[in-house]
Automatic annotation (TrEMBL):
Name recorded for this polypeptide: SET domain-containing protein
InterPro entries referenced in this protein's UniProt entry, alphabetically: Rubisco_LSMT_subst-bd_sf, SET_dom, SET_dom_sf, SETD3_SETD6_MTase
GO MF annotation, one: protein-lysine N-methyltransferase activity
UniProt keyword annotation of Membrane present: no
Origin organism lineage: Eukaryota, Viridiplantae, Streptophyta, Embryophyta, Tracheophyta
UniProt xrefs under PANTHER family: N-METHYLTRANSFERASE DOMAIN AND SET DOMAIN CONTAINING PROTEIN-RELATED, UNCHARACTERIZED PUTATIVE METHYLTRANSFERASE
UniProt xrefs under Gene3D superfamilies: Rubisco LSMT, substrate-binding domain (3.90.1420.10), set domain protein methyltransferase, domain 1 (3.90.1410.10)
């Protein structure tokens, strides 16, 4: 069988216009013709119900007995609509869990037993709420508990358990049993503990002029906005939303009435819509982009205060100058930014000049310039959200004031994409607490730092689990059918910083298990039973040598680290160099892990020789 000895990095251009709460893929055309942008819809991977025995249901309905029930059942079910259903189903089974999970808990449980039940539920929820990156790097070990995967996964898992417990009230119980209250309190304690290791007061720059932002908040209040947040200029982050008071799990930090949400309905009421609807293949998002280019100059616009509060420049990767782009040499981000700008320029050239020539009264050439088009693209890339309205339709929108909420890999707000039909408003509830004076963060989605730089203009704080480097590996000669390897089969492979792994022992090395398994299969290590232990170790050593050689070459391709004097460096160059340093750190960790792994294998080989 052919040896697998070399890899090539592959650039994957991912364009997105949406801040989203959870990750799942979909494709949307934002520009006319065929610029495909990846967007992510909110979707739930947990179907839950709380069920009691029939006797207790009858007791509650009749309110005839205050006696506590002997046993309750909590159900967590993996949705078959999850595109990772088969992998998660097999993983649950490997761990000894049924995909239609039933957890029994007695009414007289001690606090210690309640916490034990919570830990079991949390392990199951971590699997159910895993995304592709969590599963790929998580590893398969039937003898180890399902541990912490990522901040997003942990918060989502705890939130889902809290929802299950809270739903008990709506399933027939007039009074929540004490054991459910104990379980709820234990879950909240875990959420608070998680947040206490993260939260800190924002460093507010008091001398910054925020008159336009204050005007926007006042405009919002007069139009029905309910906010428990203030806007401040934060050191190292720009504008952000600060908690005005202590907020706890479930509190609504921000509520925006539908009447001030900017959506495609506004375009339909303008004189440009009859023209745009005749353009073949144009999307509603492209119409909104063109509408916003003109609307920001309208002094009579209902949204004038909102447009006045927007920055003159968004400073995303799409605005990188030549020096910053050149500083990215050797990284995937260089190709991503170049390709993204080429796409946008092509879309502009194909659409806008003809609109200006044929309808100059509606599309004035002085308004529809390339610079203005790029500004509008950056506005929609960095500020738009996907919202499901009461009619069931999902629309791309701008949400005034909500745009001040910055992104974090450990956000306070994760679910915010559905209009509450009772209040006809969009609410932003907290998944974890936020103290007064602390910056309140949103989740834009499970995004890599390269993506966040390109379309949002920043590197996230903390360790981003989605900073992965994709690998291009020949899969043609390896048996990788889903039937043969339902859990570990992957059609693509990737690496990330090995400091995120908690297993650096021999045969693991902090490297992703699917990658190692694939390379072993390529050498027939897992397909033949007559290979000796020494032959296995020798092949293991070859794998690590090949990997180290590949990533040594990648490190050389990045070049030497350049000294950076921040006060003399433009924002885009500094951001580019910071990203390049991140890439060096990731690749260096892989090289170090391969080197340490080789030492472990060589030691075992020496033992085999001595014992032979």
């Amino acid at each position: 069988m052919k040896r697998c000895t070399a890899f090539q990095l592959r650039g994957i251009l991912q364009l997105s216009i949406l801040k989203t709460a959870t990750a799942s893929g979909a494709v949307l055309d934002i520009q006319a013709h065929s610029l495909a942008l990846e967007i992510q819809f909110c979707c739930s991977y947990l179907v839950y119900a709380v069920k009691m025995d029939n006797d207790q249901q009858q007791q509650n309905l009749a309110q005839s007995s205050p006696q506590a029930v002997d046993e309750h059942e909590l159900f967590m079910e993996l949705s078959e609509n999850d595109f990772l259903f088969e992998k998660k189903k097999k993983l649950l089974e490997v761990k000894g869990f049924d995909p239609k999970i039933k957890v029994k808990i007695k009414s007289d449980c001690s606090i210690k037993l309640v916490k034990s039940v919570l830990e079991e539920m949390l392990q199951m929820a971590r699997i159910i709420h895993s995304d592709e990156v969590d599963l790929y790097f998580g590893g398969i070990d039937a003898f180890r508990p399902v541990g912490f995967c990522s901040p997003r996964n942990e918060l989502e898992s705890l939130r889902s358990i809290l929802s299950i417990v809270d739903s008990s009230v709506s399933n027939g119980e007039q009074i929540r049993p004490k054991v459910f209250q104990d379980l709820r309190n234990a879950t909240l304690d875990m959420i608070h503990e998680f947040g206490s290791n993260i939260g800190k007061d924002a460093q507010i720059l008091a001398n910054w002029n925020l008159d336009r932002e204050k005007c926007l908040l006042q405009w919002g209040k007069s139009n029905g906005v309910k906010a428990r947040l203030d806007i401040a200029y934060i050191e190292g982050a720009g504008r952000g939303a600060i908690a005005r008071e202590d907020l706890t799990v479930g509190d609504i930090a921000l509520e925006i009435p539908v009447s001030i949400i900017i959506s495609e309905d506004l375009v339909h009421k303008t004189n440009m819509f009859p023209v745009l609807e005749k353009v073949e293949g144009i999307s509603s998002e492209t119409m909104l982009l063109l509408w916003s280019m003109k609307e920001k100059h309208d002094i009579n616009s209902k949204f004038k205060v909102y447009f006045d509060a927007l920055p003159e420049a968004f400073n995303t990767g799409l605005s990188f100058g030549i020096e910053a782009v050149m500083a990215l040499d050797g990284t995937l981000l260089l190709d991503e930014i170049v390709q993204a700008k080429e796409h946008l320029r092509s879309q502009y050239d194909d659409l806008v000049p003809s609109l200006c020539n044929e309808h100059p009264d509606i599309f004035p050439p002085e308004v529809y310039t390339w610079d203005e088009f790029l500004w509008a693209c950056e506005l929609w890339y960095s500020n738009s959200m996907k919202v499901m309205f009461s009619d069931g339709k999902v629309r791309t929108c701008l949400i005034p004031i909500a745009g001040f909420l910055n992104h974090s890999i450990s956000p306070h707000i994760m679910h915010y994409g559905r209009v509450d039909s009772a209040t006809n408003s969009l609410k932003f509830p907290l998944t974890r607490s936020c103290r007064a004076g602390e910056e309140c963060y949103l989740s834009y989605g499970n995004l890599s730092s390269s993506h966040l730089i390109t379309f949002y203009g920043f590197l996230p704080k903390g360790e981003n689990p989605y900073d992965v480097i994709p690998l291009d590996i020949d899969l043609s000669e390896v048996d990788s059918t889903e039937e043969a390897h339902p859990i570990s089969n992957w059609s693509t492979h990737m690496v990330r910083g090995t400091w995120l792994s908690d297993n650096h022992a021999i045969l693991h090395y902090g490297l992703p298990p699917p990658l190692l398994e694939h390379l072993r299969q390529a050498r027939s290590l897992m397909l033949q039973s007559n290979i000796t232990a020494q032959e296995n170790l020798e092949s293991e050593l070859e794998i690590l040598e090949d990997l180290q050689s590949t990533f040594d070459a990648m490190m050389q391709n990045l070049g030497e680290r350049e000294p950076l004097v921040s006060e003399n460096c433009d924002w885009d160059v500094k951001l580019a160099l910071d990203f390049k340093d991140l890439q060096r750190r990731i690749i260096s960790s892989i090289v170090t892990s391969c080197h340490a792994g080789r030492k472990l294998v060589e030691h075992e080989l020496q033992n085999c020789t001595n014992n032979g």
